[in-house]
Amino acid sequence: MKMNFKGLNFELIDNRIYLTDCFGFANAKEGQEKRYFDFAEVQIAGENHSVHGGAKMFQSSEWGKLKYIEYSDIGNKLEIVQASKLVSVTTHFQAYEDTNTIRVWNVVTNLTDEPITLEHVSSFECYGFGKNGTDSVRSLYLYKFYNSWHVECQPVRLSFYELGLFNGNRRSMKRISGCNTGSWSTKEELPMSIIEDADAGKFFMFQIESNNSWYYEISDHEKLIYLNIGGPNTTFNQWSKVLQPHSDFETVKTAIVAGDSLNGVLGEMTKYRRHIVTPCKPDKKLPTIFNEYMHLSWDNPNENRTALVAPAVAELGVKYYVIDCGWHDECEYDQLYMNVGKWEASKKRFPNGIKATVNLIKSYGMKAGLWIEPEIIGYECAEMEKYYGDECFLHRNGKKIITSNRKFLDFRQKKVTDYLTSVIDRMVDYGIGYIKFDYNQDCGAGTELNSDSLGDGLCEHSKAYLEWVKAMMERHPGVIIEACSSGGQRMDYKTLSIHPLISTSDQTNYKKYPYIAGNILSAVLPEQAAVWSYPVEALSMTVFDEDTYETVNARVDEEQVIMNMVNSLLGRMHLASAVHLLSDNKKELIKEGVAYYDSITAAKKQGLPYLPWGFTDFYKDKVASGFVSGKKLYLAAWNLGGDGVMEIPVDIGAVQGAKIAYPLRSKEELTFTANGVTLKLKPGSYTARFLEIDLA
Predict the structure, then answer these.
(1) Which ranges of 407-548 would DSSP assign to H, the alpha helix?
(2) Which tens digit of pLDDT belongs to each residue from 254-268?
(3) Overall pTM > 0.70
């Protein structure tokens, strides 16, 4: 029996089923000896992991033992069932009408009458990258999406050879791997990668949908190169799971796609991501947000500051005004994080009550928002620690986990979710329409309480947390709930399938943000990717005490305002800073930027990423990035100290016209040919413009 499903080819031989081709990208090539490989890995404790492979998650105990049972192929869903003596494995392949991307995951069932312990279960595995296997390691490239605080989404392209995979004998022990252990799912690397076969001109992209620990590896066997992707395992994530008799375990979901170009696979993954995101009615029009935090109130808001700033923000056309950290608790602002947990409004900073300030914001025609970090309490918040009790916290080695002045709540505990539900209810009762859910530290490998392993405890807690978030959205359908984790430290598509938008960075330097904004559409939908725009950079944390109209306008020129607006036009605009102190002409630039942002909402929600120069990095002096919607390319162009001559290729259709769409007062030279545009900006400057390019 041979079977094809949306570019995946399977073959049944001697009661075993194999994936023989994956989008034409991996597995047996024409003229090569055909080899057959499994597409699921299950390692069971106490069972032989027989391969001479070092630390590789490969040829696990059930690999080679799984026999074909049955399959179901209905419409866009294929399910293949295999079984060994100990477990059955059902591999799910989900396709979609408008994209070549396929979602893949496994469900393992214990077939025995005794508990078994899982140590590793893959979500997907395939073989055969490179026309000549390990002879191709110099022409196979991996894009690893490095990620960290202030430097989110930084892809680096290196050959398999440079990453340590050589053409040795029949196999090696070297892994090219990506891994996260902990509750910040993206603190070092995004759970996604792209493999480029330079000889064939093909690209293969995958993402792992986990809001905690995950793992992938690329290595070789019998001179063929394989990819294994999925959630946590024992070796690298301190995860194991006891599976009771006749019970199931479901892996994290993954997504795979192949194509002929970098922009092509990014576009297909973008279309797929739109299928898995939960709709949010109040966010439908992608409203602009003003947040007091960045370069303004920081952790120290109060009712007088909001009263001073809100009228000016409303005049700019902003829809939501958010008060960030500090609206709660009575301690000094530099003691907040070690004391948070009650989430009651501060009478010290809001003596007339937070509701009075919310009503003030609403009186200017805006909706109000507040910040919260629900997953933790401050380590000195004795009142809430006593209220919850020891069982409501994550533990390791018999002690509550404490990191960065925080203790971590366990969302599997009803007492935790009940109290925090009452907090969210109270916040909504203040009259707000927006809540920013932040999470500013990683708890580590997990918790030993009520779990089979640290990693198991983390997975179950993380699952319970997102279930609670989803319940809050259903309970308050008129409220937008943003995700944030010290910027983009939990920028995964398990989280993003629930939250309508996410903070992409805490980057405080507007001249560096283009390096993040220029790549971010590869990782996050444009309608979800929140980018700060802070036209007025504060000189200190006490900006309200130091800055005046004169000092601000002396150091902030129009180009600084324009660049900050352009930074946020590709994604979700999060305006911030002391905009109330700007001169009228600079306020007009902001107002124009907000209006233009609103005008391209429909296009953005259909847009597919377009990176004319590929990915950018912090050493470039020019950046160009955009999205295609219909027959139009929306493109941000940044000159970051370069010579100002930006020759930008366009290979997705003949260019029919081009204009600078923001700001309209621009007089820079813009010309075009059928193959691209040329924009001339001031040499040596930090300058940005937003273009609209008409395509044939």
Answers:
(1) 414-429, 454-475, 513-517, 543-546
(2) 999 999 999 999 999
(3) yes
